[in-house]
């Protein structure tokens, strides 16, 4: 799983070099969402009691998307902003669950 993650992450980062936010908003956000999904899928490979590792992965999910949201025009990208905000909320919800479980 780790090798698959590394290869996928590397390829997605290369795609971001071409699909920059300024000019390719939908594609850029879709790639970022794919990266976030990779991090989320990696949490399944950690033990339920490995709270620290799981928390780091969920925090990365939020950190990837949070800075992008204010850069988007809400009139043009309302749905994309909503999807990203939902994903950020899910990441923070998981972080809260982890803190409660500790």
From TrEMBL:
Subcellular location: Cytoplasm, Cytoskeleton
Keyword Cytoplasm: yes
Principal location listed in the UniProt entry: cytoplasm
A GO term from the CC aspect: cytoskeleton
One Pfam family it belongs to: KBP_C
Keywords: Cytoplasm, Cytoskeleton
PANTHER family, sorted: KIF-BINDING PROTEIN, KIF1-BINDING PROTEIN
Family named by the database record: Belongs to the KIF-binding protein family.
UniProt protein name: KIF-binding protein
